[in-house]
Amino acid sequence: MTGRRRVITAMAWTSYSLGLAIWIIGYYIPGHPPLLDWPSFSPSWIAMFLQNLECELGLALTTLGTIAIYGVKVIPRGRIP
């Protein structure tokens, strides 16, 4: 792995870990109201996992980290200097 790929991968794992920690905290501790009204347009099991703003933020960071982790592996070596 080149130096830049290592930095991107490390930042992606950090984002993933931080997002997971924030989601777990938000799931077990009541926080701020959610940005979206999940029960009105999604199944109840999705609304259960996204109870508040902290859960939404944690899920967004976890998804961003996952995309970045696997995106670095998929992009050809010449595309990331």
Please describe the structure with a list of short key phrases separated by commas or semicolons.
81 residues; mainly alpha; 4 helices
Provide an overview of this structure.
This protein has 81 residues and is mainly alpha-helical. The protein has one domain. It contains 4 helices and no strands. The chain has helices at residues 3-28, 38-41, 44-49, 53-74. α1 (3-28) packs antiparallel against α4. Helices cover 72% and strands 0% of the residues. The mean pLDDT is 87.
Low-confidence stretches: none
What structural class do helix, strand and pairing data support?
mainly alpha
Biggest β-sheet strands, sense, barrel: none
Give the total of beta strands: 0
How would you briefly describe this protein structure?
The protein has 81 residues and is mostly helical. Helices cover 72% and strands 0% of the residues.
Helix-strand blueprint:
Elements lengths: L2 H26 L9 H4 L2 H6 L3 H22 L7
